Amino acid sequence: MDGPAIFSANCNSCPTIGGGNLAGPDLKAVTEEQPQKWLVNFISDPNLVITSADPTVTEPLEKYIALVAWVATFVGWVYRLVSDLTSPPIS
Q1: Does 91 have pLDDT greater than 70?
Q2: CA of 77: how far to CAs of 64, 73, 80, 86, in Å?
Q3: Residue 36's pLDDT is what?
Q4: Strand partners of residue 5
Q5: How far is Cα 2 from Cα 44, in angstroms, rounded to an integer?
Q6: CB burial readout 34-64, b (16+ within 10 A) else e
Q7: Cα 86 from chain centre
Q8: Is 15 exposed, middle or buried (0-12, 13-18, 19+ CB in 10 A)?
Q9: pLDDT digits (tens, 9 = 90+) for 42-68
Q10: Is 24 strand, coil or helix?
Q11: What is the CB neighbour count within 10 angstroms for residue 33?
C-alpha cells in the first residue's frame, strides 16, 4: 500500500501536517500524542472511535460544531440586516 497516495486521495482536505488545525487536526506530532493502538483503531474504523465517545475525538468535534452554529447565526443576522436595508420602506 502506498500510504502517501492513500492519504492524498482520501484525507488531504481535512488534516494538515505542520499547518495547524483547520478542517481537521494537525497530524505533525500525532504519533507522540496518541498511542499506536489508538491510531490503528482510528485509521481502521474512524466511525467506531467517533461513536465511542472518546474525548480525543468528541472535544474537537464539539468545537467545530460550536463554530458552525456561530457562523450560521452570524450569516442569518447578516441576511436579515441586508434584507432590511434593501427592502422598500413600509408606507
Answers
A1: no
A2: 20, 6, 5, 14
A3: 92
A4: none
A5: 15
A6: eeeeeeebbeeeeeebeeeeeeebeeeeeee
A7: 35
A8: middle
A9: 888 888 887 888 887 777 667 767 767
A10: coil
A11: 13
Q: How far apart are CA 68 and CA 40, in angstroms?
A: 29
pLDDT bucket at 19, cuts 50 / 70 / 90: confident
Q: Which residue has the cell 492524498?
A: 8
Q: Which triple of cell numbers denotes residue 25?
A: 487536526
Shortest CA distance to 34 belongs to which of 63, 64, 55? 55
CA atoms within 13 A on the CB side of 50: 8
R_g of the chain, CA atoms, integer Å: 20
What phi and psi, each to the nearest 5 degrees, are found at residue 69?
Answer: -60, -45
Q: 20: phi > 0 → left, psi -120 to 50 → alpha, else beta; which?
A: left
